[in-house]
Amino acid sequence: MSKTSAAASRQKLVRLVLTALLTALIIVMAFTPLGYLKDGAIEITFITIPVIIGAVLLGPVGGLFLGAVFGITSFIQCFGMSTFGVALFSVSPLRTAIVCIVPRVLMGWLTAVIFKAVSSKDKTSFVQYLVASIAGPLLNTILFTGTLLLLFNNAPIIIQLKEQFKEYRRRRDAFIANLEAEKEANLKVKQAIIEELKELVNSDETLNHTFTKFRELQQRWKETGIVPLQNVKDLWETYNLHVENFYSFIKINKELRDLMDIKVYVDTDADIRLARRILRDVCERGRTMQSVITQYTSTVKPMHEEFVEPSKKYADVIIPEGGFNSVAVAMLIQNIRSLIQSSK
């Protein structure tokens, strides 16, 4: 035996073994939960996977054969294993066999043909396999649905399925419309909460009453549902800003100041604060430079000047540059230790 004929025999043997393995896999999947995801009359199949693999590795003939095996097992499902298949079989066994087998045979063969066509034009293996993996399930759905509608278009079960699909679309559209309306209502509620937060800092009530109201607003915010996606980011940032402003307002409240042993104000230049905010919001939160600067000039800076800056005059210690001022921090630590020792 020549080397050429020996190589051909080995290649033939490999093809036969691969065909047998994929055939066995299709049969196992067809008659176990591995092959189908079933929900009443709705069935999603995964048996296209070994058929596609065979079409890619064995070519059009192999794809055609494995598609036929898939189709035959699909037809066998109509004998009591598939609700939808049983209903079709009761109308016409012959047409049911055609619907089950012919589209699967064509799917296997066409997938291999498409794979070879793409391979001849694009040698990138990723593209070839990607096209084949998409083409297989797509062809199976198109061919099966097209054949089904062609042969059973006036059958009661198809008419019933069409009506059920229309009802599904109607309910889906109604659900989406209700969800959008709910989102808009939630948006108005959260905008109202933000307005109430703004008013808290100008309240004439006692600190205890104001803080209780603040906690109630926070709880209402948490309990309010989702809002339209395009409003989520700006709404949260505005809410968070006014929460920070409220805490700043509390810091300059006399009732709290009188309870403090030492009051510290960390002083940082405005340009450094702006630079830090830009770095944080652009790099970590994905905002644009323009939106950060606009928010800073329109709300952050005015709020700082109204609520944060005034607390400076009540401070016992003012630390320039914050944690970078090691001398001031060391003095503060020593002062706190002295306070702790004197209170013992």
Description of the structure:
The protein is mainly α and 344 residues long. 77% of the residues lie in helices and 5% in strands. The protein is built from twelve helices and four strands, in the order αββααααααααβααβα. A two-stranded antiparallel ribbon has the order 1-2. Strands 3-4 form a two-stranded parallel ribbon. Strand 1 and strand 2 form a beta hairpin. It is elongated. The mean pLDDT is 85.
Helix and strand composition category: mainly alpha
Give the SSE string. HEEHHHHHHHHEHHEH
Specify the helix fraction band: over 70%
C-alpha Rg (nearest Å): 36 Å
Record field, number of beta strands: 4
Q: Please outline the major beta sheet.
A: 2 strands, antiparallel
Mean pLDDT: 85
Shape: elongated
Beta-strand proportion: under 5%
DSSP helical segment count: 12
Weakly predicted, low-confidence segments: none
In spatial order, strands of the major sheet run 1-2
| CA-CA gap between termini | 102 Å
How is the topology of this model organized?
Blueprint: H1 3-30, E1 36-39, E2 42-45, H2 48-76, H3 83-91, H4 93-121, H5 125-152, H6 156-200, H7 207-223, H8 229-251, H9 254-257, E3 264-267, H10 270-283, H11 289-308, E4 317-320, H12 326-343
Parallel strand pairs: 3-4
Antiparallel strand pairs: 1-2
Helix pairs in contact: 1-2, 2-4, 2-5, 3-4, 4-5, 6-7, 6-8, 8-11, 10-11
List keywords for this structure.
344 residues, mainly alpha, two-stranded antiparallel ribbon, two-stranded parallel sheet, 4 strands, 77% helix, elongated
Brief rundown of the structure:
This protein is mostly helical. The chain is built from twelve helices and four strands.
